[in-house]
Amino acid sequence: MEKLAEIYSGKAKKLFQTTQENILLVEYLNQATALNGLRKDTVEGKAMLNNQISAHIYQYLNQKGHKTHFVEEVSPTQQLVQALTIIPIEVVLRNITAGSFSKRFGIEEGIPLDKPIIEFYYKSDALDDPFINEDHVAFLAIASLKEIATIKEMTLAINESLKDYFKQLDIILVDFKLEFGKDQDGNIVLADEISPDTCRLWDKNSHEHLDKDVYRRDLGDLVSVYQEVLNRIQAL
Ligand code: ADP
Ligand code: UDP
């Protein structure tokens, strides 16, 4: 398997074609961003941590029978994934109030929700990822109603698996963002990364932040917090 042309350079990762058809190489970068890329810092060691944490979580989700893009980790900062046509929606699921939800509704952080809340954001850096509903998704022809129903069903099922996984690590899964893509047969498949960059993770006992809020809110050292998450995963 050889790395061929770069096809995308994003805020946290680069994508490359490979000698294997429909398989992409994802290279994680030592880059942290917030505020839609307005704030950007080089963080030594972040690529390795996110790649490895995401790979462990995806291996678990594959074992649990979820349909995901993950193939294998090939180096400390690289993994192979199935090439998909990404559906430009960021799907956020919330188990506990926090972040933009708390801000939007003027509700304090940390209140458990009776049932998970799913939100959609239109994945567009130029528009700052606006909040959208299912009618907007239909209007923008981003996905069909049936596909949206499948995405919601998959997101709820993935939430159940992830909650169980993090529980074993003494971590509370507050909320997270997922992306989905379509394979050549039109099947919906889970894509992108799952890491402390894309999930809110709180220590079960101290409620200490073990996620990107440490960077967003200047609460401490991102690398040592992400390393703590990886240590707990490796100790499983
Ligand atoms: P951003 O695009 O927001 O700057 P990243 O730096 O994480 O974010 O870039 C990774 C890109 O790769 C994202 O746009 C994501 O949608 C895309 N992607 C993730 N998984 C796949 C996949 N399996 N096939 C194609 N594209 C993918
Ligand atoms: N999230 C993400 N990428 C984004 C926006 C949000 O991975 O571009 C994740 C974020 O880490 C959190 C969840 O989605 O776990 C909900 O984020 P929220 O809407 O509260 O926004 P925030 O206040 O974190 O910007």
Automatic annotation (TrEMBL):
<keyword id="KW-0067">ATP-binding</keyword>
<comment type="pathway">
    <text>Purine metabolism; IMP biosynthesis via de novo pathway; 5-amino-1-(5-phospho-D-ribosyl)imidazole-4-carboxamide from 5-amino-1-(5-phospho-D-ribosyl)imidazole-4-carboxylate: step 1/2.</text>
</comment>
<keyword id="KW-0547">Nucleotide-binding</keyword>
<dbReference type="InterPro" id="IPR033934">
    <property type="entry name" value="SAICAR_synt_PurC"/>
</dbReference>
<dbReference type="InterPro" id="IPR050089">
    <property type="entry name" value="SAICAR_synthetase"/>
</dbReference>
<feature type="domain" description="SAICAR synthetase/ADE2 N-terminal">
    <location>
        <begin position="7"/>
        <end position="232"/>
    </location>
</feature>
<dbReference type="InterPro" id="IPR028923">
    <property type="entry name" value="SAICAR_synt/ADE2_N"/>
</dbReference>
<keyword id="KW-0658">Purine biosynthesis</keyword>
<keyword id="KW-0436">Ligase</keyword>
<dbReference type="InterPro" id="IPR018236">
    <property type="entry name" value="SAICAR_synthetase_CS"/>
</dbReference>
<dbReference type="InterPro" id="IPR001636">
    <property type="entry name" value="SAICAR_synth"/>
</dbReference>
<dbReference type="Pfam" id="PF01259">
    <property type="entry name" value="SAICAR_synt"/>
</dbReference>
<comment type="similarity">
    <text>Belongs to the SAICAR synthetase family.</text>
</comment>
<protein>
    <recommendedName>
        <fullName>Phosphoribosylaminoimidazole-succinocarboxamide synthase</fullName>
        <ecNumber>6.3.2.6</ecNumber>
    </recommendedName>
</protein>
<dbReference type="GO" id="GO:0004639">
    <property type="term" value="F:phosphoribosylaminoimidazolesuccinocarboxamide synthase activity"/>
</dbReference>
